[in-house]
């Protein structure tokens, strides 16, 4: 294919001609994939799981209340509700509804999707609620009163855009929004931060920070740390998808840039500045490797001191996954060969001491969240793996008692006879690439097993073990084998693993994925006609490249909410913010290597391709649906077997409610069994 784009018209997201084309493709796929008894059964089974009142309700604390957002059959768009901790511990807690989105949508004639809420701390009843039309990234923010359970008349309202509204105090907010020409950056994110005072027009909000118009980052975050004794404003200016600058101080007076590398992740907690390095940093008389975790006294650092304590240094097999703060401790989550372990760090008598957090599972994935990092040392622990339903534990880091099991999800599928194990493949350059294999424990290596291989490989995101109802019910329970590849580009081994597949080295991620596929074939787990692959977003770019690079390895390909046209990606929605990951196609030297992983430009009508399914959403305002639309059109024109489904709502996640989610999941699962079963 040359670079003249005959399908450019499909980028008109809501244009009538483009939507007519979408509706026709959807009708074809519905008739082909959804008009069967088996599809209806699977869709109903998945919906019953997603709507079950036995799902694990995650909660967040404010005052005496614990809040949860919940969707089920009676509340498809969801309710925001609350209960007490004593009630939450019960098998069937009593909940109080605070906001009913279905009722709100009916009253306002809207299609709001929940995007979260920020309370005015410490215990004020006012909250800023973010709502999205159809699940898009762009949203609105409206002030809400949780005592009256109603939106505040004449309260703060942020117009729809990719931005935020956050509390500064009870009568002022930080406004980051698209307010007209010149107020968004190249990637479509708001580029100004303003202080907006109650009772004044939004137009009079005071600009306290302005980023350049040609910036291609995620815009700006501005907020106030309201921790007693440490009240200060924090502003983050995102330079691209990775790098950011942190400013601290009084936004109404003076903000000071914190002098740490732009690429580092910065945390401010009470008196501490905590830095996660993505690149090597020489500071003082020491050089710290990428992946290290450093901590120092913030005031001393701002005054010029450079005495930084080292809390974690990576190894060849270990990397820092996350840091969680409580009132008096830090909890370090470390991945060793993609398996989590937890370490508690505490400042005692002028020095940092560490100890393992005992009583947690040794295999699988752990995620930690503070119950209230201003007043408490309690943490929530979410524990999950491929075959064990997710559970929620409560632990107090100030004590020695083991974590307490609070709730666990019911099993969504029958895991009898299944096992999860870790294996390693060898990539083209000799790199050892881990992957997880989930399937029957007594699997015969005869190459006959329908196998689904999943991957992502970008933006330093790690694929750790997680319980997935759709895969379990729709794939494993029916006899399929599931594999998850921890390829370069991800964060499984820290920054080095991510940076190994950036820009001109993107091919390393694809070689890693192909190495895992070949290992599955060479060891008799499966064969090309029985091997399918699936990925979404950057993972959709991955599976799109597999389709055009090594189609002979696969029997079916699923590509979800993908990037595919890498010539135009920087001109489509948020695409410009990812140039640090992929490069700039408008720079000739960059386009030379980007073209080698632009699937839309690599379609070869003369090659045989496996059956392919493309899935996207009209309301995806992060990765433009034009990528999937144009790829579908080009593959069909080349005579390839390709199916397409575009959900009209859903945003980048693909679905706006449980029914849509069940439908989309049943489509790709039905497609796989149609071609591999």
TrEMBL record:
Keyword Hydrolase (UniProt): yes
GO cellular component, one term: cytosol
Family matches, as InterPro entries: AB_hydrolase_fold, Pept_S9A_N, Peptidase_S9_cat, Peptidase_S9A, Prolyl_oligopep/macrocyclase
Pfam family, one: Peptidase_S9_N
Domain Peptidase S9A N-terminal: from-to ranges: 5-398
Keyword rRNA-binding: no
Gene Ontology process terms (BP): proteolysis
Gene3D superfamilies reported for this sequence: alpha/beta hydrolase, Prolyl oligopeptidase, N-terminal domain
Annotated ranges, domain Peptidase S9 prolyl oligopeptidase catalytic: 475-677
Key words of the record: Hydrolase, Protease, Serine protease
GO MF term list: oligopeptidase activity; serine-type endopeptidase activity
Protein name: Prolyl oligopeptidase
